Each structure stands twice: as structure tokens, then as C-alpha cells.
Amino acid sequence: MLGICEIENEYVMTLLVEALMPLGRNYAIIHHDTQDQRSIDVGIIYDATLFKVEVQFNHFVMRRTATRDILQVNFFTSQGRRFVVIVNHWPSRMGDETNSQVYRAIAGETLAYFHERIWEVVGSNTPVLAMGDFNDEPFDRSLEDYALSSRSRTKVVRARNALFLNLMWPLMGQGLASYYYNNAPCFLDQFLANKNLLSQTAPLRVLPESVAILSLPEMVGTGLYPTPIRFGGMGEPVNLNGFSDHFPIVVTVQEKS
Asked: d(Cα 154, Cα 164) in Å, to the nearest integer?
């Protein structure tokens, strides 16, 4: 399953699925055309042999006009277990980080609200994995105070309300980064797992030790800092051998047979 943000349209996702055909998987697309003025959409590519869509929702974050999207998809695995995935792309820091932080706080509150609603509607034992470009770091208030994510596994597991464990803290401690701004390492791309994915005996279980930044050698520039080779566009020169300005992140979720 691949959660994607900053895509231009569904056609781009179709091209990606076509490029992945040699893998022999039955990939399908979930896409929502947001009202963001730069046409920056979110979506999911998933193996339709392993997952069936129960329902999907789009939770808009408003900034006078519609901005980035939060895409929630309730899946059933091939073994009939419900698994909720939420792909996030929170409002940008562009212009002024301080003035824009209130919109990311709203996005965090929106995520926490619908996490709670999932518990209320389909059950508090529902595993939920949130992912995406949060445009804030794990220690920022939008993640900790509003999205209700924590670095403490014990706090999340013992809580009676819907909290997330932010799986990126160990990588931050190693000085790694998924994004570089002015050569400063940032961890804007994150996985958040709720308590139902954390138990050793959980039917669906996230493996925290599997979290990684996917920075293959051909993706990394040769400068002093290990920044991605950018594809460009949006007013910048295009490098057809380039990639995103963010490194992708990966994690493994294991299902019991």
C-alpha cells in the first residue's frame, strides 16, 4: 500500500500503476481531487487482492479557501479485518511558519476528531495508521497537542482515549531526516499508529523497528548534505532524472493468519 501526497491528478497515479505492472500485483487507485489552488492532491495505491474498500472520507482543512486534504479509507483485509488508513497533507509552512501554524493545528485537531469518531462508530479496537506530510515535526504542537500523538508507547497503550504513537522519534534520534530546508534536516513525513497496532498479540501489528527512510543511492545528491535530487517544476527547472523533494518513508504492518 502506497500513500501519496503532492500529486497533480489521478492520471499521474494511473501512470505509476502502469509502471508497477511488472510486479504482478493487482493495484487499484483511490484518489480525491482536492480544491487546493495548486492542484496538490492525495491518494492511495493498494493491492486489491489484499484489501477491499469499505468506505472512504475526505476531511478538508479550510484556510478561507480549501487547502490540503486528509483522506480516510476504511479497508477490510483479505482475512476480513478492518484496517483504517489516513493519508495526510497538512497546510504548508510557505511564507511564514508562525502565521501558518494555526492551520496545521486545525489539521491536527481534525485528525484527532476523526480518530475518535472511528472508535465511536466502528469500535475502539479498530487499528488506525495515519501517514503523510504533516509539514510539522513530531515535537510540534500540531502533532502532540492537537493530533494527540506521543513518543511514549506506554502512554498510548494505556490511554482510554484515541492517541497515536509517533513512530519517527527513534529515527530523529539518529539525526536522520526525510526533508531538508536550507540544509537543515526536518522530519515532516511521519507514521502515526494507534494502540490497536502496537500489541504483540494484535491481529494487525505495526513493526516499529521496520520504519525507515527510503533514500536509495540514485535519489541522493552529492552535496554536503544528503538531500534528494529534485525533479523540479512549479517554476523550477525540470530534471527528468530527479525525484521528490521529500524522501519516502516505509513501515511494515503484519497480519496474523
From this structure: 11
The number of distinct structural domains making up the chain is: 1
**pTM, entire model:** 0.93
Grid coordinates of 115: 480518530
Q: What is residue 88's three-state secondary structure?
A: strand
* pLDDT tens for each residue of 141-169: 999 999 999 999 999 999 999 999 999 99
Q: How far apart are CA 27 and CA 18, in angstroms?
A: 9
Q: Are 193 and 165 in contact (CB under 8 A)?
A: yes
| Beta bridge pairs of residue 56 | 73
- Identify the helix (H) or strand (E) that includes residue 209: strand 204-213
- State the CATH number of the domain containing residue 79: 3.60.10.10
In tens, the pLDDT along 200-251 reads 999 999 999 999 999 989 999 888 888 889 888 877 889 998 888 899 999 9
Show the domain range for 191. Answer: 2-255
Q: Which residue has the cell 480544491?
A: 35
